[in-house]
Amino acid sequence: MFDLIDKFKKLFKAKLIYGRPKKRNILFFDCQNSKIIEKQFKKNTYETLTVRGDSLNVNIILKMLMNFNLSFKSYVFHYISYVSPKIIITFTDNSIFFYKFKKMFPHIIFIAVQNGVRLKHESIFDELRGDCSKKNLQADYIFTFGKAINDEYLKYIKFNPVFLGSFRNNLVPISKKNEKKKSILFISAWRSYFRNKKKNIENRYYSVEDKLLPLIIEFCENFKIKFCIAGCSISDWQQEKEYYSKMINKGKWSFIRRKNELSNYKLIDRFEVIAFTHSTLGYEALARNKKIVTFSCANSREFRSSSPFGWPLKIRKNFFNSKSLTKSEVFRVLKNVVFISKRQWNKNYQKFFKEIINFDSNNKKFINLIKKN
């Protein structure tokens, strides 16, 4: 009864589309996160299927009524059938729902592109370890960050693997021209949607930065190192800057706002060392051949567990990573990374990092596969 009420609520809130979907060779599954991929295709070559209830096509709903099936799965089935694409692409690789349709359309090529770092807990893998792991989940290809997370997906989903790295990151050429020596860029973990959450949920993420950032600034002042914070929000950057200004009341530092979807990748290239706690951008910095310092403190018991750095690889306390926020530990890893030469860094770690994330300039692997099909 409550499920039926919920369905009607979504129906009345959704924008109703009266025109028929277009017959296209490419169908984007889920409009969220797909914009970055859509830019790679001409407008008249693809159709987009929204799967979050924000819009519904009336013609498809009528087909459902004729078949006496009002489930959303039926809606998606009829939408795909009508568009009759050769390829279906999603940028929402962490949607189990997507992987349920390949067996219904064996002649269509289903492609998922990894959109962000996937964690051990509070992610798709929590669901996959449950009942969903016993179902026949399939895709033709999943373009993953690297071998490590790819092997985890293969435990639950049948697909052909391609190690692509980050699609967005690959769109921005790596520049070595303007790198500032003795500089550290910290990647913000601030998110505007946490403002309306309970305080204990906020603390789960931000209490790490509260303790960590003053120590990094102290280190930078001691060793005359330039320190900046890379903003995350494009629209709410002023609130983000104000948040850090209230947190950090002493020391020299600068806040650099995020200007657009891809600007932070160019920003990363300007700094010698990238520091972060759990950001996808931090992992993307590895693919851009940057020295990194990571504090996996948000994964300790004090801050609740989500996933250790590099998961599913097992990485313990080491040269560039720490789970502790003591001054001695923060200073230890910062000294290690700041004062090691780039040559030694690459020799010791670059091969290992490639298991976590790759770099494929201009997404050639993705583009070539689409052209072949």
Structural domains: how many: 2
Major pleated sheet: 6 strands, parallel
Task: Give the total of beta strands.
Answer: 14
Uncertain segments are: 1-5, 196-203, 299-305
What is the C-level CATH assignment of the largest domain?
Alpha Beta
Shape: elongated
What is the residue-mean pLDDT, rounded to a whole number?
Answer: 86
- Major β-sheet strand ordering: 3-2-5-6-7-8
What would you say the CATH architecture of the largest domain is? 3-Layer(aba) Sandwich
Model description:
Residues 1-5, 196-203 and 299-305 have low confidence and may be disordered. The protein is an alpha/beta fold. The two termini are 44 Å apart. The protein has two domains: 2-165 and 361-372, 3-Layer(aba) Sandwich (Rossmann fold); 180-353, Rossmann fold (3-Layer(aba) Sandwich), CATH 3.40.50.2000. Helices cover 36% and strands 17% of the residues. The chain has a six-stranded parallel β-sheet, with helices on both faces. α3 (58-66) crosses α4 (72-83) and α8 (199-222) crosses α12 (327-338).
In short:
This protein is α/β, with parallel strands linked by helices and 373 residues long. It has helices at residues 2-13, 35-38, 58-66, 72-83, 124-128, 147-153, 167-170, 199-222, 237-247, 263-269, 280-287, 327-338, 342-353, 364-372, and strands at 15-17, 26-29, 46-49, 55-57, 87-90, 109-113, 138-144, 158-163, 180-187, 226-230, 254-256, 271-276, 291-295, 321-322.
